[in-house]
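User: Assemble these into one structure.

Assistant: Restating your components, then the assembled model:
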Amino acid sequence: METDLCLESSLWVGNKRHRAVLTGWHFKWTEVDKKNRDKKTVSVPVSEVVGVEEGRVEILPRKSAEDTDKDFTVFYVKRSSSGGSYGLLWRLGRIQFSCPSRALRDQWTKQLRTALKTHSPLRPHKLLVFINPFGGKGKGRQIYHSLVAPLFELAGISCHVIVTERANQARDHLLKKDLAGFDGVVCVGGDGMFSELLHGLIGRTQQEAGLCENDPAVTLQPCPLHIGIIPAGSTDCVCYATVGVVDPVTSALHIIIGDSQPLDVCSVHHASALVRYSVSMVGYGFYGDVLAESEKHRWMGPLRYDYSVRFVQCFCTVVYLSNRSYAGIVEYLPADPLFSSPRDKTRCLSGCSVCSRSTERLFPQSSESGSLYSSHFSQLSADSEGEWVSVEGRFRCVSLTCMSSSCARSPLGLSPSAHLADGTGDLILVWDTHPLAFLKFLHRHTSTQDQFDLPFVEVHRVKAVRFSLPKNRDEEGQEEARGASVGTDEEERGYVDAIGRVDSQQHLADGTAGRDQTGKQKTAAPFLCGLCCRKPPSESVWNCDGEILPFTEILCRIHGQLVRLYARGIEDGAAIDSCSQEIDESTARCSRY
Ligand SMILES: Nc1ncnc2c1ncn2[C@@H]1O[C@H](COP(=O)(O)OP(=O)(O)OP(=O)(O)O)[C@@H](O)[C@H]1O
């Protein structure tokens, strides 16, 4: 129960008397009838008050202000169902109060502003905003100026806005220009723009810390600036996975109130050099092939965005590519199974306890920002090398994701129980199987059916992954062309490499996926049709957050909570509904609001 009462008085909304109460953490107002009985209460956490203005003020659709000396207007976050998406839409709530005297009005505005400063320490004052004028449907500028800028102005945030003129301009700016005075960086665009900010900020932070990004064993320094995403792209997966909806106003309000969501980042290396950072998916096999195939259709120009063309194209591509499998060696460093598991059926939602415990584990003495990494933390230390697990065989796809990677078409995502900020990623291995079985696996991503509950699919929670090609892959390629089963000598002997990694066969002892009963890995009988009877290539490509990587043999390492977004994870709609901001007297004791 809150005891730190700051102010309480009668206020009027129109001609209705309300009892308004400001405690340390909440501002609430209750309509009272003529007999002094409470009717409806609205309660808003102080941290979700967007702004307080003297007079009668309106912001949207356009700004208007009437400077009356006994009135004040409070703007706050108001939630509504998103009608389909997993998360909740945030809207700007507005309430206009009248006081009996100017002195009381001044007291209310002063106390509310003081409470805001005290309870929202991470609210940004100055932001650097990059708008991609060509992202998505090319509406980035319009979205920013009509929906977002008025909200930032209301909240007193000053913005330096740059409309990009070329790809990588935002990344280069962050790497080279003076960033002093900025609290955060915002992109108005899609996942490609977010990726530019990610690379720019991480690179800049390591440069300043004198750390080498190329060395996967180096513990990178977390970025001090927050990243905000105003979704205006054609793919807004990072926004969806961290907010739960793709909506510019919702995202702008998260930025304004200074929400802070840490995010794990995967660094991808090849031959001792950093290739890219990823937050969403690094995928080989099917996901790489789909991206490579879609790149081929760039010649179609805008026609490739036509829905009917896309549908036919998509269907043919999936059928065509679902027949391919690739030989590879996957080595992975498992995460501690005591903390969580990819099959534990939990969802990483706002206030996730797994991620909070990870924060304590990763940064034992952490304050909100500051020097976050413990010097003891080194996931790739010599101690943990012995825990590596290795598997070898033919895969339909190999993917690693640092988050659920949910999106509008796949509301639960690639790995529904993955966490945003627990310092791990989920490695999904889909062994070679019949194309129809693989299509079943793919289809399950669009429903609530468990895509991991299939005999040819494995999922592991990991801290690092290495992928390499088998040394005798040319022979394999020839055998594959003849449609014969492949069982390499190494598989029959059991694979133990020079640094003593665990034999994969042992690890998969219970699984029959991709193997026959003698333990040899088997190749599914080829599925023949007019579309896919061509000899498939012996190597696929890596799809890293929508970009094709130029290398096949890579090492990925997950860096726990390397960046922070202005977000709070997906809010549990059911919990918020049962604890609504507008509370009847019967439910007025709800502790959350
Ligand atoms: N002014 C510009 N001209 C050309 N390309 C740009 C410009 N500004 C940014 N870009 C690049 O455009 C790419 C796509 O941008 P963005 O992510 O905003 O839109 P998108 O429609 O979601 O695209 P994607 O399908 O790649 O996600 C980014 O990788 C970014 O580097």
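The radius of gyration is 27 Å.
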